[in-house]
């Protein structure tokens, strides 16, 4: 019995020396982002969208029914938020940016329940000292495949209070907002 215990202890010590201990990552001090720059926002009827916006939207989501849209001007740049439904009836929002007279879809969004966000995203968001339980969560797929989880604080529906990037199975709390 003593020989088996000695062998097990030796194996444990040998395994302990095999890897380099990594210090746990420090929790971010805060998750709440500074307010974004103010935007001049106007409603746009679906029929009044510039043809380039409509073309870019339908190229990204063929058969989309456009329900409403907003034109935003911020920092000298023009953006459009276009909401509607896919042919299967699911809701979707596309955000576009105008570049040299052409429109490009920069993100595709949908609302989800906080419980449906990946566990590492919820953990990253909850690690900050000022963490909160979001009242609304938008899952926003970017052009490069990154998914940004936009978290809205209770009583603050105008813009997300915090955002978490999710890519390659890694969740990182953002320290800056997207320009759009």
The helicity comes to 10-25%
| Regions with little confidence, pLDDT below 50 for 5+ residues | 1-24
Oligomer: single chain
CA radius of gyration is: 23 Å
Helix/sheet category: alpha+beta
Number of helices: 3
The main sheet orders its strands as 1-2-3-4-5-6-7-8-9
Strand content: 35-45%
Number of strands: 9
What is the H-and-E element order? Answer: HEHEEEEHEEEE
Q: On the 0-100 scale, what is the average pLDDT?
A: 83
**Outline, from the CA principal axes?**
globular
**What is the first-to-last residue Cα distance?**
67 Å
Could you describe the largest sheet, including whether it forms a barrel?
9 strands, antiparallel
Short key terms for the protein model shown above:
single chain, 180 residues, alpha+beta, nine-stranded antiparallel beta sheet, 18% helix, globular, disordered N terminus
Fold topology:
Layout: H1 2-16, E1 40-44, H2 51-60, E2 65-74, E3 77-85, E4 91-99, E5 102-112, H3 119-126, E6 136-142, E7 147-152, E8 162-167, E9 170-173
Antiparallel strand pairs: 1-2, 2-3, 3-4, 4-5, 5-6, 6-7, 7-8, 8-9
What do you see in this structure?
The structure is a single chain. With 180 residues, this protein is α+β, with helices and mostly antiparallel strands. It has helices at 2-16, 51-60, 119-126; strands at residues 40-44, 65-74, 77-85, 91-99, 102-112, 136-142, 147-152, 162-167, 170-173.
Summed up:
With 180 residues, this protein is α+β, with helices and mostly antiparallel strands.
């Amino acid at each position: 019995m003593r020989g088996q215990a000695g062998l097990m202890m030796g194996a444990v010590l040998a395994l302990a020396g095999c890897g380099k201990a990594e210090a746990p990552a420090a929790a971010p001090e805060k998750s709440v982002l500074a307010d974004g720059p103010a935007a001049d926002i106007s409603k746009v009827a679906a029929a009044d969208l510039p043809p380039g916006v409509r073309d870019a939207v339908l190229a990204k989501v063929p058969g989309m029914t456009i329900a409403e849209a907003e034109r935003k001007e911020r920092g000298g740049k023009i953006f459009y938020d276009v909401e509607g439904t896919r042919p299967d009836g699911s809701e979707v929002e596309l955000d576009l940016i105008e570049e040299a007279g052409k429109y490009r879809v920069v993100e595709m969004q949908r609302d989800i329940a906080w419980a449906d966000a990946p566990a590492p995203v919820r953990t990253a968001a909850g690690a900050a000292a000022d963490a909160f339980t979001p009242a609304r969560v938008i899952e926003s797929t970017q052009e490069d495949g990154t998914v940004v989880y936009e978290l809205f604080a209770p009583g603050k529906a105008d813009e997300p209070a915090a955002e978490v990037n999710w890519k390659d199975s890694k969740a990182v709390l953002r320290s800056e907002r997207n320009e759009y």
